[in-house]
Design a protein that fits this description.
This protein is of the alpha/beta class and 248 residues long. It has nine helices and eight strands. It has a single domain, classed as Aldolase class I (TIM Barrel). The chain has an eight-stranded mixed beta sheet. Helix 1 crosses helix 3 and helix 3 packs parallel to helix 4. The structure holds iron/sulfur cluster. The site of iron/sulfur cluster has 11 residues, from loops.
Length: 248
C-alpha cells in the first residue's frame, strides 16, 4: 500500500500472449520479488523485493482486458513472478476485480511464503476465493535436495499442496527437469506418490530446463551455479515422464 492507502502492486513485467502459463491464451503478469534462490532461476532480476513498475489493481486489469478477445473460452489472466504470494493484498484485489469481470484467474507460485499462521492464512483463504487454478512449482519433494536447490525448506510448500487439496482447489503441479539435479528416479517417484496423495491435481507436467536466462545472471554479476549443465535430451524427458506416469 502507498501513503494514500491505495493498494499498489510492484510489477516486473507483462506477457500479453502467454501459451504455457495455464489454460488457453493468457495475459501473464510477473510480480517483483522472490526470496528463493533456485539454481536454475531464469528470472533472477525479479528477486529484489523492491522496485518494478507500480500499478493499481484497477489499472492493471484495464490493461489486461484489452487482450480479452484472444482468450476465447478457456484463456484468462495468470499472475507469476518472482513470487506472487509476497504481494498478496494486491493480488487478491486484482483477482477479485478480474472475477467480477468473469475472467479465469491462475496463480503461478512456488509456495515459499505459505504458512498456516495468521495473518497469512486468512489472507490466503480470501485469495483462493478469487483464484480458479493454482500452478504449483514443486522444485523437489526431498527436503535436503530442496534446500540445496533453492536455499529453503519445503515443508510449508508440501503443506500448501495439502491445504489446496483439502480445500478442493484445482492444481497443476510442475517440475523443472534439470539433468543430474532434479531428475533422480527416486525423487521423481516420490513426486508421483505425493501427487497421488492429493485429490485436486488436474495435471502434472515437466518443464525442461533451459539456459535462456543465463545472460541475466551474467548481467547481474552473479555466478551461475549450473554453468555447463545442458538442457535435458528428448530421451531424458521421456524417461522422466515415464517415471511420473505422464502420457502425452
Ligand atoms: S521461485 Fe521462481 S523466481 Fe524464485 S528463485 Fe525460484 S525460479 Fe526464480
Amino acid at each position: 500500500m502507498n501513503n494514500d492507502n491505495k493498494i499498489i502492486g510492484h510489477i516486473h513485467s507483462h506477457e500479453t500472449f502467454g501459451l504455457v502459463d495455464g489454460p488457453g491464451v493468457r495475459y501473464v503478469v510477473f510480480l517483483q520479488g522472490c526470496r528463493m534462490r533456485c539454481q536454475y532461476c531464469h528470472n533472477p532480476e525479479t528477486w529484489a523485493l523492491s522496485g518494478g513498475e507500480e500499478w493499481t489493481p484497477e489499472a492493471l486489469l484495464q490493461r489486461c482486458l484489452r487482450y480479452r478477445p484472444y482468450w476465447k473460452d478457456n484463456g484468462g489472466i495468470t499472475v507469476s513472478g518472482g513470487e506472487p504470494l509476497l504481494q498478496m493484498d494486491f493480488l487478491t484485489q486484482f483477482f477479485r476485480l478480474a472475477k467480477g469481470q468473469g475472467v479465469h484467474t491462475t496463480l503461478d507460485t512456488a509456495g515459499n511464503p505459505f504458512t498456516r499462521e495468521q495473518p497469512f492464512l486468512g489472507k490466503f483463504e480470501t485469495l483462493m476465493q478469487y483464484t480458479d487454478l493454482v500452478m504449483l512449482d514443486l522444485k523437489q519433494t526431498d527436503p535436503a535436495a530442496h534446500k540445496s536447490l533453492t536455499g529453503w525448506d519445503n515443508g510449508n510448500i508440501l503443506d500448501m499442496a495439502r491445504w489446496l487439496s483439502d480445500h478442493s482447489k484445482a492444481m497443476w503441479i510442475r517440475r523443472v527437469l534439470v539433468p543430474g539435479l532434479t531428475d533422480d528416479e527416486g525423487e521423481l517417484s516420490g513426486l508421483r506418490r505425493f501427487v497421488d496423495s492429493l485429490l485436486t491435481v488436474e495435471r502434472l507436467e515437466i518443464l525442461p530446463y533451459h539456459t535462456m536466462g543465463l545472460f541475466k545472471w551474467e548481467k547481474l554479476g552473479i555466478p551461475y551455479p549450473l554453468d555447463g549443465v545442458e538442457p535435458p535430451t528428448e530421451e531424458q524427458i521421456k524417461k522422466a515422464e515415464t517415471v511420473l506416469g505422464i502420457q502425452n
